[in-house]
Design brief:
7 helices, rod-shaped, single chain, two-stranded antiparallel sheet, mainly alpha
């Protein structure tokens, strides 16, 4: 089924109205000519003008008006062949009044058509202004949405900065506390070594105290390295320094370093290394920090028994 657009339907209606107005005007003229002079058919000549006005065609309106006005007097002349023409004749006066009525009707219809054109132009102007306002409103909404997104992004970045600042503050507080322990221990160890050096009877304790001194110094260096790594991580400059070493020896060494921490809680710290020697290539310092954190947490949250650090080789 075919559908006809409203514009095409309107065009067809206008054409039909114009054609019907012309046909009706011709029919009226023919009827007027075929009747007697006393029957003034010209009084209804205004009907085709009304139909022509619906076409909104001013040329058709005034063309019909002129044609019907001429037809009014031509018909009168044809119907008066045997009578003398007089300006004061009642029939001529009627025809003259019919012509004036046609002129007034055409003028009023012309004003009506002009008012419709003005209203349509105003409606189109109003629609155009509404479209512009809608476009401006859409643009304003888009700008507002962009501003909202920018504000959200600024808020997010501010929260991230505040969070990073809070993390750094907490880290510095924790590190300042953690640094005191190895520094105090180093000072104590140095004082004990100094006194031991003055007393030859205590010379056998020097190697053990030296190892503890070295262990605390290494812990202090690890703390400083951790601070530097966090700063590098925030700035995107963190790098790995890889080297090759024996994982078996590494695990045994960690158990020896963290053994006193387990003994302080009456716990066992055992290592289960693979029978074959395993060599790995990675950043030893960062691996050391990871294993230290894991084992330290395991010792911290183990109530009794022990902690076992094992190494196994995967199938691949």
């Amino acid at each position: 089924m075919k559908t006809v657009s409203p514009n095409r339907q309107t065009d067809r209606t206008v054409v039909f109205a114009g054609a019907f107005a012309i046909v009706l005007a011709v029919a009226e003229v023919v009827l007027d000519v075929g009747t007697w002079v006393e029957l003034d058919i010209a009084t209804i000549y205004g009907i085709p003008l009304v139909l022509a006005a619906f076409t909104r065609n001013k040329r058709l309106l005034w063309g019909l008006m002129v044609a019907l006005t001429l037809a009014t007097f031509v018909t009168y002349a044809l119907q008066m062949p045997g009578r003398a023409f007089e300006m004061r004749d009642a029939l001529f006066v009627n025809r003259l009044l019919d012509a004036v009525a046609l002129l007034l009707t055409a003028g009023l219809l012309h004003v009506w058509m002009a008012s419709l054109d003005i209203r349509e132009a105003q409606a189109q102007l109003l629609q155009e202004q509404n479209r512009r306002l809608e476009a401006a409103n859409d643009l304003l909404v888009a700008h507002e949405a962009q501003i909202v997104r920018q504000n959200e992004e600024l808020i997010r970045r501010r929260c991230e900065a505040e969070d990073a600042s809070g993390r750094k503050t907490r880290l510095l507080n924790a590190i300042s506390h953690d640094i005191r322990n190895p520094v105090n221990t180093i000072n104590l160890m140095a004082e004990v070594i100094r006194r031991t050096a003055e007393d030859p009877a205590l010379a056998t304790r020097v190697p053990q105290m030296a190892r503890r001194l070295q262990s605390n110094a290494q812990s202090l260096v690890a703390l400083v390295s951790e601070v530097l790594d966090i700063a590098h991580l925030d700035s995107g400059l963190l790098q790995r320094r890889e080297n090759t070493f024996s994982l078996n020896a590494f695990i045994d060494g960690k158990c020896s370093d963290l053994g006193p921490l387990a003994e302080a809680k009456s716990l066992r710290l055992d290592s289960e290394a693979c029978e074959r020697t395993i060599c790995v290539r990675t950043d030893r310092i960062k691996l050391d920090r990871v294993i230290t954190n894991l084992v330290t947490n395991a010792i911290k949250f183990t109530i009794d028994g022990g902690v076992t650090l094992s190494v196994a080789l995967a199938a691949d």
